[in-house]
């Protein structure tokens, strides 16, 4: 499972709770950024494709390891563009994206109140500019970010339960 969406949509919060409830391993995709990417974002400079590709490949490696081991897992990754998501999954249809959907107006207060994180609020617009929402040809669950973490996690597990049982 890849919890995706723009900065501040709630990926880390939802993924932590999902992994705990499911008993799955969780990987924070942001931990796999090259230091140069963190420095770039911290300086208020949006990442470009060239910056993201090695990061996406590192996350794809986590997904592939889980696939080889036959183990489920939850990883957070903004996955803003379709070709990023294809790079993450290798176009293998065993990965579900949980897309935390919302508006800049809904997310900005969260980013403004968050402390101790490298991502400046000024980059939120660039995240939406880059965002390509998952299409009908992709395995993705749209979830409104407006609900509580508990409500979102319960809804995701409820909807995916039949898949999780297989
Ligand atoms: N469902 C929610 N309702 C209210 N606040 C939330 C919700 N989910 C997350 N938050 C809060 O919003 C802020 C951003 O959440 P979080 O860090 O999980 O987002 P993120 O998508 O992982 O961000 P980034 O991509 O920048 O790391 C945090 O302060 C978090 O406590
Ligand atoms: O795709 C990107 O521009 C970046 O990866 C950001 O989305 C960060 O990973 C994170 O969301 C901010 O902390």
How would you summarize this macromolecular structure in one to three sentences?
This protein has 166 residues and is an alpha/beta fold.
Secondary-structure element sequence?
A: EHEHHEHEHHEH
| Mean pLDDT over the full residue set | 96
Rounded radius of gyration (Å): 15 Å
Named CATH topology? Rossmann fold
Would you identify the regions where 5 or more consecutive residues have pLDDT less than 50?
A: none
Q: How many helical elements?
A: 7
Bound molecules: adenosine-5'-triphosphate, D-gluconic acid
Relevant CATH superfamily: P-loop containing nucleotide triphosphate hydrolases
Description of the structure:
- With 166 residues, the protein is an alpha/beta fold.
- It has a single domain (2-165), classed as Rossmann fold (3-Layer(aba) Sandwich), CATH 3.40.50.300.
- Helix content is 50%, strand content 13%.
- The protein has helices at residues 11-22, 35-42, 49-69, 82-89, 104-113, 124-130, 149-165, and strands at 2-4, 25-28, 73-76, 97-101, 140-144.
- It has a 5-stranded parallel beta sheet with strand order 2-3-1-4-5, with helices on both faces.
- α1 (11-22) packs across α7 and α3 (49-69) packs parallel to α4 (82-89).
- The mean pLDDT is 96.
- Bound molecules: adenosine-5'-triphosphate and D-gluconic acid.
- D-gluconic acid binds at residues 7, 30, 47, 52, 78, 80, 119, 127.
- Residues 5, 7-13, 30, 76, 78, 110, 114, 119, 145, 148-149, 152 line the site of adenosine-5'-triphosphate (ATP).
- It comes from Beijerinckia indica subsp. indica (strain ATCC 9039 / DSM 1715 / NCIMB 8712).
- It is an enzyme of class 2 (transferase).
- It catalyses: D-gluconate + ATP = 6-phospho-D-gluconate + ADP + H(+).
């Amino acid at each position: 499972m890849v919890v995706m969406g723009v900065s501040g949509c709630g990926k880390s919060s939802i993924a932590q709770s999902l992994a705990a409830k499911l008993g799955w391993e969780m990987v924070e995709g942001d931990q796999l950024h090259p230091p140069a990417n963190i420095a770039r974002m911290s300086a208020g400079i949006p990442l470009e494709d060239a910056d993201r590709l090695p990061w996406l490949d590192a996350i794809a490696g986590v997904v592939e390891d889980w696939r080889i081991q036959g183990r489920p897992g939850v990883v957070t990754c903004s996955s803003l563009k379709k070709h990023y998501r294809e790079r993450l999954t290798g176009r293998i249809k065993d990965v579900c994206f949980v897309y935390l959907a919302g508006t800049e107006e809904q997310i900005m207060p969260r980013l403004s109140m968050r402390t101790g994180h490298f991502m400046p609020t000024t980059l939120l617009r660039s995240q939406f500019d880059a965002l390509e929402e998952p299409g009908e040809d992709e395995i993705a669950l749209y979830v409104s970010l407006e609900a509580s973490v508990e409500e979102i996690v319960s809804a995701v597990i409820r909807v995916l339960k039949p898949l999780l049982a297989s």
